[in-house]
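Study this chain:
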Amino acid sequence: MKMMAAVMHGPNDVRYEEVDRPACPPGGFLLKVMAVGLCGSDIRNLSCDSMQGVYPHIYGHEVVGYVEEADPTVTRVSVGDRVFIHPAIHCMRCESCISGHSEACQNTEVKKPASAQGGFADYMPIPKNQVDHGYIFKIPEGISFEQATLGEPISSVYTCLEKINVKLNDIVVIIGAGTIGYFLARLSKMRGAKTVIMVEINGERLKKAREFGADYTVNSREEDPIQKIKELTGGRGADKVISANPSTASQAQSIFMARPGGIVVFFGGVPKGALTELDTNHIHYNNLWIYGHYASNGTAIKNAFDLAVSKDFPADQFISRVMPLSQINEAIRLTRTSDVVKIVLKPNC
């Protein structure tokens, strides 16, 4: 049997074409993909030699759909269930998992190989190890597939804000008004932050940031962001500063935006090999705490999904467009060049 998929044949070479439909895996199930979010990490992977020459490959990790077929041993889901599939798989037995940091699971035996098929396709196999150790949630009635895809990008944001305890009356600075920056702003306000300040070089993105809860915006191309943050906070600095873009310059500046005793988070990964020059005396004498943040732990994944499918969550604010999977290259172009926040792709249409 055949299906249609967006297949990567190399850097910047994505073709919508017919491929073999995967079989239902032993101990797992076959998902009929109904919606899949286009993530910034997908775009980075599709534009570089992410698979180190091992092509063709199908990406896509913000996936929801129907259970099309299930192995007889599977009891967790039934054929016809509408489900959300988080890409993480955690053993919950290693030291990291037991200590509450399942995002750093050390058990390579439970993880899917890099070559595993993703969700930019009509169908996606969900293997036994994901059924046994992954995060698979049923989508409530009345919630669209498109909205449910937001559970994955929210999970990393939720984990970060939980880790640094953004709370009532906090002043939070977010550097980078991209999709993740908008999620950070919205969730910070939902957690009770008194003031959210967005720093960005793109004026259009800064205007849009207001829609997601930013109280103040700072165009760091037009004014000194450190001085402006001091001015907006009465000389004090922010309680939490989150650098959410791939910039070493932003990381270097971020420590000067935090108050004494404040927290700084490096959320956005920078290019491999790039080094950030930090004034460690400033960190030392101001008692700053510096965190690196990556991925999601198990508790946050469940809470993030519950938030994403809440009828009170403004999903329409985040989903700018819904497009056929066949138009993935146009979706990539729009994400790179326009002010869209999030594009959701629809296979089977």
